[in-house]
Design a protein that fits this description.
By secondary structure, the chain is mainly α. Helices cover about 75% and strands about 0% of the residues. Helix 2 packs across helix 3 and helix 3 runs antiparallel to helix 4. The chain starts with 6 loop residues before the first helix and ends in a 6-residue tail after the last helix.
Amino acid sequence: MWGLFPAGNLEMNGIETQTIIGRNMIKSDIGGGIITAGIFLSLFLWRGNQWFWPVLIICTAFFSLRLISFFVDGSHPMVIFGLAFEAAVIAALIGLKHMRHIKADLMSGQSDKA
């Protein structure tokens, strides 16, 4: 909801914007990235492996910036939750990639029989 209705999230997270430009930056920078990641993930699940790397790069960028902020700006329970959630998303992406390869191998009859 960051992209469409950020007001509730802004107040809940202690973010104040004084101008239209500030609200626009929050919507586009945060909401745009989250919506883009969601679109890429949907395309990856629907069309295949060509969408894995863009999604992984975007999610890793979110995680990396939050981790840098954690060490530079300090900790808060919501920051720790965000780090854990983003790490889980990255792990899920890697798991999905692995599962798609297993499924492709099984469908083509090339499963490893060691």
